[in-house]
Design a protein that fits this description.
single chain, seven-stranded antiparallel β-sheet, about 180 residues, mainly beta
């Protein structure tokens, strides 16, 4: 499946970063900046590429940037089980197969835009471009995988005891609305 360069569809969602259930009650609250820092720490290295679905898929983020209002990035997926692509000449209808190597797969990439300021419920407005293999569920799984890494664990001292905890991402889609709404 290929993607038109003329039309794009997006998921509209609310992203929140919270403490996991085993966190100390008095531990500091987390926000989207905590997720951003951990994504940046894993960007561009092999440890930041999640391997999943029977070792057939890889997911990673790149080009993470922000300004005072927004965070934007690219999220990529490589899928080994996609068949070799074929191209058709639109004038003659002749097809040409383009083979892929043994260690290659189809590559898809989506833009993500996250508003830094959370709403009254603690959710950050998030737009994710719809492309094959990248969904709200796969992004949520990838973000939670990043926050489950040992480097993302947090330590909080409570009554002289050090307790570890981590962040958890919630990514809930909104019902279909226009972007203007």
């Amino acid at each position: 499946m290929s993607i038109s360069k003329d039309h794009r569809w997006v998921y509209v969602a609310g992203l929140s970063v919270r403490k996991n259930a085993k966190s100390p009650d008095s531990a500091p609250h987390l926000n989207v900046i905590f997720l951003l820092e951990n994504l940046k720490n894993n960007c561009g290295n092999l440890d930041g590429k999640r391997i999943f679905q029977n070792n057939d898929r890889r997911m990673w983020c790149s080009d993470i940037s922000c300004d005072e209002k927004y965070v934007w990035m690219l999220i990529h997926i490589g899928v080994a089980t996609v068949p070799d692509p074929a191209f058709v000449n639109l004038n003659t209808l002749a097809t040409r197969d383009a083979g892929k190597g043994e260690d290659e797969g189809a590559h898809y990439c989506a833009h993500i835009l996250i508003e830094k300021q959370a709403d009254s419920c603690g959710r950050n407005l998030t737009l994710i471009e719809k492309v094959p293999g990248i969904s709200l569920t796969s992004c949520k799984a990838h973000f939670n995988w990043i926050l489950a890494k040992p480097a993302a664990k947090l330590v909080f001292s409570e009554n002289g005891d050090e307790k570890t905890y981590r962040g958890v991402v919630e990514l809930d889609g909104f019902q279909s609305l226009t972007l203007k709404q």
